[in-house]
Amino acid sequence: MAYKVLVIDDDEPIHYMLKNLLKDEFAVLNAHNVQEAIDILSETTVNLILSDIHMPGISGLEFLESIRLDEKKKSIPVLIMTNLPTVEKEKKALDLGAADFIKKELLNNNREKVLDIIRMKIVTDVQVSGLDEDQTKKKDQLVMKLMETAIGGSFSDTVEVLSKGLAEIVNMNYAGFWMIKDDEAELLYSKNDEEERPANEDNIMAESSFDYLKDNREEYLSNHVFNEDVGFFVDFSKKQGLSAEIGVPLFAVNERELLMNNMKVPAKADMFGLIILKRSVLFSSTEFELVSRLIKQSGSILYRLYKKNK
Length: 310
Description:
This protein is an alpha/beta fold. It has 2 domains: 121 residues, 3-Layer(aba) Sandwich (Rossmann fold), CATH 3.40.50.2300; 177 residues, GAF domain (Beta-Lactamase).
């Protein structure tokens, strides 16, 4: 099933350029004004909206303001396109919930960057019912900052943004991110409320749960790691009272590959990273779904950046 992108613009050449750019990966729907877009949205579910900012009648910003008040459509990510971005317009669009800006000049001089932005926005669009208002706000802020950092191209900075953001969303006592390569693991990020470090933090592969995770290739949730088959740094966890743990493997798959495989990790993809989150407060199923999906889907961004920076 192809992901659907709705393009709203009164300029026909823009539709032509975006159709040619996106057609191999996405189903592209076209609207030449906001009312046409509303009619399409009333009949079709779309995954992303690309909207011009300047149009006759209702402008892109006015459309964005209205769609955010529509309960059925407010969660659709919107990227605003413009020829002449200003700080004031960008701030207003972001305040209204725009995912980001795309300068139209990129359609001519950096088409791959446009594709990267669109892919990133769709893979980070994680909608989970049951989140409280604070978690939803933090999740949206994390996604926006993650995209902003990833567009800059830094793998290490993006790892830190994701790890810190996850720790804030679900109030972690401990968070760790490891890079896995050629049977070696490198700790890239560690957040610990206590001074003491886990015994195998720099040697994560010595943990029995590492083999379990590598063999099963699936994220896990444990609300009692002390006596279960899966759980990292058990002695450390007991001492600190951290009974709840989420572990999520990351795989060697970029955004395009993940989207083309309907957000499922291909069976042949190697494990290239691992995130472990611990806290004393028990995890709900809703929190587990949010965290695991954010990590898995954002992991595709990290892998692309890692390959690019090698």
